[in-house]
Design brief:
Number of helices of chain B: 4
CATH architecture of chain A: 2-Layer Sandwich
Shape of chain A: elongated
Order of helices and strands of chain A: EHHEHEHEHEHE
Radius of gyration of chain B: 23 Å
Structural class of chain A: alpha+beta
Number of domains of chain A: 1
Mean pLDDT of chain A: 74
Distance between the termini of chain A: 23 Å
Largest sheet of chain A: 4 strands, mixed
Structural class of chain B: mainly beta
Number of strands of chain A: 6
Helix content of chain B: 10-25%
CATH architecture of the largest domain in chain B: 6 Propeller
Oligomer: heterodimer
Low-confidence stretches of chain A: 1-63
Number of domains of chain B: 2
CATH superfamily of the largest domain in chain B: TolB, C-terminal domain
């Protein structure tokens, strides 16, 4: 699996010099890193499928470039760790189990360690039932996750919740093999 | 030279039509469908075409499932041989003629003849502008339907629906479409890369006031918009709180609508007055309340809620404020709408693992399941209450189906090029 990774060393090095060169050299360098990059879990969203241009706009913009690259590095580390970026739910369910709570705690720690990151929680539902009810259900799933994260001080205001109901399925199969993957909340950091 | 030009224009028009028009397939008809002759109309004047008026009437009556339309080989004029048609078991005959008055103005005369009583049931003569031919054809269809069956037709009405197409690269395009009740005369002006949900016609009868409320994700989250398809007014965005705004539905007066808003994550139903822009909260519950819809007299509100722990239908009496649960059969009932007579609800009802359309008699609580596929949704009554339009799936593709409330008649509206979903049927249009 190919993965795009930032080259953090160049950036940090130049950031440390504290000279006027910082801005110039902090231009983000992106390199295709193949075999040695740890495969990202399949639950991370397939970006090729995601082309809703308006959703890729950051919802907070007050970050300078240095912060952005530090953030990007931290995020790359989190992605390379065994942290799940998608949590799954039972039919019509919004409950967070023990395992999911463990995952949420990892995200809470990440957010606490990286005060500049903001998080969008995207709630989704499977195709069964009505579209409007599923839109509400998707929001409740994302809100359940936010509730756990908000137990940590200072996180609540950095989390935005959106729901796409059944409109943006991850899997196409029209049986439990697909539905189970579609009843989900995705963690998307900015 | 002139002829060549005309052909070019037609070719261009055809291209447009091939992309947007739905295919209509009659699936099931009444066993005792009314046998009727609808002749092509006599044409008096230059050219030689009847502008498809007879064809539209033939298709309308046939689609309703209540008529067996026979199209005679030769045009039938004013003299009708009743004995001949009686022997062929035909019960009524429709004939007509069109006379050109000026470039764009025509006089249209239509006669409906009852074969058994040997009587003319009506003659209608009207002057029509060429742009009004479709509308007149739908009005005449309603007149014929009512004269023979004693009930109102639903032909002079409009549909709205969402189509979804996917290009070779997997990018989706969502269109909000409006069409005549026969799925012709399609206009699709709203085209987005993000989903469109829940379009619903306002109850206004004039084109000037007709509006469509719908849900769009174009700004990254669900928001409710109001579109005025027949005026140049800008699309209005309704207010929202911090979460979803969705599930719009009109008050019968057309001046306000109900929608679902989530404030502090709590999804409740609010009414919004378009004139004074005032929001009024109608439900107060920590569970999901959504998919609200008014009774035809505006005194009751039906909605979906999971307040019992299951997804069920509730009715709020807007006079007393009292909320009663309406559905007790099955573990999942959602998206209910009132029938035009206010006596029944159509809804999505879960049977085992399938989601089907069911009708509930509000008084007796009798529930009848109308459909038999796996993922049926978005039911809505035709304005005469005779049929229910809904979205269904076949080969994992959405299409629309229309079933009579008795279940004995049905037809489908499908797209060759994509999916069709989220249907809604307008009230009657002004005459």
């Amino acid at each position: 699996m190919k993965n795009i990774v930032l080259l953090p060393f160049v950036i940090i090095l130049s950031a440390c010099t504290g000279t006027g060169d910082v801005l110039e050299s902090s231009t983000v360098v992106i390199e295709e890193k193949g075999v040695e990059s740890k495969a990202v879990d399949a639950i991370v969203r397939d970006e090729s499928n995601f082309n809703w241009s308006d959703l890729t706009k950051p919802f907070t913009q007050a970050n300078n470039t240095t912060q952005t690259s530090v953030k990007a590095q931290a995020l790359a580390e989190l992605k390379a760790s065994d942290t799940n970026f998608t949590l799954y739910f039972s039919y019509d369910g919004t409950d967070i189990g023990d395992k999911a709570t463990q995952e949420i705690i990892k995200h809470a720690n990440f957010m606490r360690d990286n005060p500049a990151v903001t998080l969008r929680l995207e709630g989704h539902a499977d195709e069964r039932g009505t579209r409007e009810y599923n839109l509400a259900l998707g929001e409740n799933r994302a809100l359940s996750v936010k509730e756990v994260l908000s137990l940590y001080e200072g996180l609540e205001d950095r989390i935005k919740v959106v729901s796409f109901g059944e409109e943006n399925p991850m899997a196409r199969a029209h049986d439990e093999s697909g539905w189970g993957k579609n009843r989900r909340v995705e963690f998307i950091y900015k | 030279m002139k002829l060549v030009k005309l052909f070019v224009v037609l070719a261009v028009l055809n291209l447009g039509i091939a992309q947007a028009v739905l295919e209509v397939t009659v699936v099931k008809k009444d066993e005792n469908a009314f046998p009727i002759i609808v002749s092509a109309f006599e044409w008096v004047g230059k050219g030689a075409e009847d502008k498809d008026i007879a064809k539209i009437i033939q298709a309308n009556l046939e689609r309703s499932g209540r008529f067996n339309v026979v199209i005679p080989k030769a045009i039938i004029g004013k003299n009708i041989d009743t004995q001949h048609w009686k022997r062929q078991n035909i019960e009524a005959v429709v004939t007509g003629n069109i006379e050109q008055q000026s470039d764009k103005i025509y006089t249209l005369s239509v006669r409906l003849f009852d074969v058994y009583s040997n009587k003319q049931l009506f003659t209608k003569t009207t002057r029509v502008h060429v742009s009004g031919f479709r509308k007149v054809a739908h009005q005449l269809s309603d007149h014929i339907y009512e004269a023979l069956l004693g009930e109102s037709g639903s032909f002079n009405t409009l549909l709205t629906y969402v189509t979804v197409t996917t290009d070779a690269r997997g990018n989706k395009e969502y269109r909000l479409n409006i069409s005549d009740s026969d799925a012709m005369n399609v206009k699709s002006r709203i085209k987005l890369k993000t989903p469109i949900l829940s379009p619903v016609w306002s109850p206004d009868r004039s084109y000037e006031h007709k509006k469509i409320a719908y849900v769009s994700f174009e700004n990254g989250q669900s928001e409710v918009f109001v579109w005025h398809p027949y005026t140049r007014r800008k699309i209005e965005k309704l207010p929202r709180f911090d979460g979803i705004a969705s599930a719009p539905s009109w008050h019968p007066n057309g001046k306000s609508l109900v929608l679902t808003l989530s404030k502090n994550g709590n999804k409740d139903i609010y009414s919004y007055n378009l004139a004074d822009k005032k929001l009024t909260r109608l439900t107060h519950n920590s569970s999901i309340d959504t998919e609200a819809s008014y009774s035809p007299d505006g005194t009751q509100l039906v909605f979906t809620s999971n307040r019992s722990g299951q997804v069920q239908i509730y009715i709020k009496n807007l006079t007393t404020g009292k909320i009663n649960r309406a559905t007790f059969e099955g573990r999942y009932n959602a998206k209910a709408v009132f029938s035009p007579d206010g006596k029944s609800l159509a809804m999505v009802h879960r049977v085992d693992n399938d989601y089907r359309i069911a009708m509930l008699d509000i008084k007796t609580k009798d529930l009848s399941i109308m459909t038999n596929s796996q993922l049926d949704e978005s039911p809505y009554f035709s304005p005469n209450g005779d049929m229910i339009i809904y979205a269904t799936s076949r080969d994992n593709k959405n299409l629309l189906s229309v079933v009579s409330v008795e279940g004995n008649r049905s037809y489908e509206l499908s797209s060759q090029t994509g999916e069709v979903r989220e249907p809604n049927w307008s009230t009657y249009l002004e005459q």
